[in-house]
Amino acid sequence: MSQKKRDLIDNTYKTIFTKFNTLLNSKKSKIKPLKNTNKKVIVLANGPSVKKEFEDKTILSEMANTDAICVNFFYKSEVFDFIKPKYYLISAPELWEEDVSELHQKNRNSLYNKLTNHVTWEMTFFIPFQAKTTSFWREQLSKNNNITIQYYNNTPIEGFESFRFRQFDKQRGTPRCHNVLGYTLMVLIWKDYKNIGIFGADHTWTKSLYVSEDNKAFLEQPHFYNTNPNLVQMHTKGKKDEKKRKFHEIIHKFYLAFKSYFEIHNYAKTKGIKIYNLTKGSFIDAFERMTPKDFFEKI
Q1: Fewest CB atoms less than 10 Å from the CB: which of 29, 55, 86, 148?
Q2: CA dihedral 104, 110, 113, 118 (to 10 degrees)
Q3: What is the rounded distance in angstroms from the CA atom of residue 142 to the CA atom of residue 148?
Q4: Considering the domain boundaries, does residue 101 fall inside one?
């Protein structure tokens, strides 16, 4: 069988499956686009490279004067209160599911407490619709009137490109991202920001991935708030009874993440949206590279 026929069969199956999957799992969502669609926005991811950008007072000042979205545990940054990000987004189930390890409970409690007690500016908090199954996080954030909760669909959309893009337009889901950055970019596309700049998306995980003599796969996951982390075993989920991922499973997750960026890049182009990777040394090869200085001065 030719590759063309295999691709046809594969896309047909994925399109049919996705139709049923969205009917079962996607909710009605309408993230409203901005009125001023020429505005630019920056993504503040948690890679170690972003810490160097914070040391440049000129860049830091530009960050504070630009719409910004941060993710996961960015609140740990010493410049969080200075930048005052307009948006915050999370995607990991362990940040809202009940049956998770004590470490995940501690981390997410710290996140919600920080946002509840320290956000003195208007902020939109994006979280997947699945999080509606629990209420503890919502009850916590609702104590702060500055925070607006906005749900989004993260249902994986696969199949023919024309079908995928129509589903994206309806906000029924996203590519199979496997990384918070992918979901963040999709939300910003739905907001119709015409220029998106990405900080802290190092994605250099393969540098430290290895297998021990007892066949356990380990991976270093450095963040700007912890640049000398220990090597950790990759988990399948954040649950108490979680299992460890095998080497090929880790590589497959990397594949999904990097592949999703090309899907997002192609979708953004149909909207007249440009995505720039401002992260020096990043392994992401889907987006145009640009220096932070040029982004702030020329875009």
Answers
A1: 55
A2: -140
A3: 8
A4: yes
Domains identified in the chain, total number: 1
pLDDT level of residue 7 (50, 70, 90 thresholds): confident
Q: What is the pTM of this model?
A: 0.93
Residue 99 lies in a domain: yes
214 domain residue, yes or no:
no
- CA 233, CA 50: separation in Å to the nearest integer? 25
Secondary structure, 3-state, 109-137 = HHHHHHHHHHCCCCEEEEEEHHHHHCCHH
Can you give the pLDDT at residue 244? 79
Taking only the tens place, the pLDDT of each residue in 112-132 is 999 999 999 999 999 999 999
Query: Token pair for residue 49?
Result: 């490279």
Per the DSSP assignment, residues forming a β-bridge with 152 are 128
Among the listed residues 238, 236, 242, 207, the one whose alpha carbon sits nearest the alpha carbon of residue 222: 207
Is residue 53 domain-resident?
yes
Give the angle subtended at the CA of 90 by the CAs of 84 and 96, to the nearest 5°: 125
Record the tokens describing residue 44, joined without a space: 């503040």
The Cα–Cα gap between 185 and 287 comes to 12
pLDDT in tens, 158-192: 999 999 999 999 999 999 998 999 999 999 999 99
* Rounded Cα gap, residues 189 and 203, in angstroms: 21
Alpha-carbon span 246 to 248, nearest angstrom: 6
